[in-house]
């Protein structure tokens, strides 16, 4: 069972191009902005480890 900390953040078409930190993160957890590379609909931030998920059939490379 996935814990809330490990649950990927769902993204929509309007969130692309996806970057971390996302606008919903508190200021204290900020780090340099990085654009995410998706593989099979999932991406993970190299700084904080936050996982992101595209909707089914989502294509970040459009």
Structure description:
There is one protein chain. With 62 residues, this protein is an all-beta fold. It has one domain (4-53). 0% of the residues lie in helices and 19% in strands. The chain is built from no helices and five strands. The strands form two sheets. Strands 1-5-4 form a three-stranded mixed beta sheet, with no helix packed on it. It is globular. The mean pLDDT is 84.
Overall morphology? globular
- Biggest sheet: strand arrangement: 1-5-4
How much is the average pLDDT?
84
How many E-type strands?
Answer: 5
Number of helices: 0
- N-C termini distance: 33 Å
Approximately how much beta-strand content do the residues carry? 15-25%
SSE succession = EEEEE
Residue windows where pLDDT falls under 50 for at least 5 positions: none
Class computed from helices, strands and strand pairing = mainly beta
Share in helix = under 10%
Please, how many domains?
A: 1
Characterize the biggest β-sheet.
3 strands, mixed
Give me a quick take on this structure:
Strand 4 (42-44) and strand 5 (51-53) form a beta hairpin.
Blueprint of the fold:
Layout (H helix, E strand, L loop, with lengths): L8 E2 L8 E2 L13 E2 L6 E3 L6 E3 L9
Parallel strand pairs: 1-5
Antiparallel strand pairs: 2-3, 4-5
What descriptive keywords fit this protein?
62 residues; mainly beta; three-stranded mixed beta sheet; two-stranded antiparallel sheet; 0% helix; 19% strand; globular
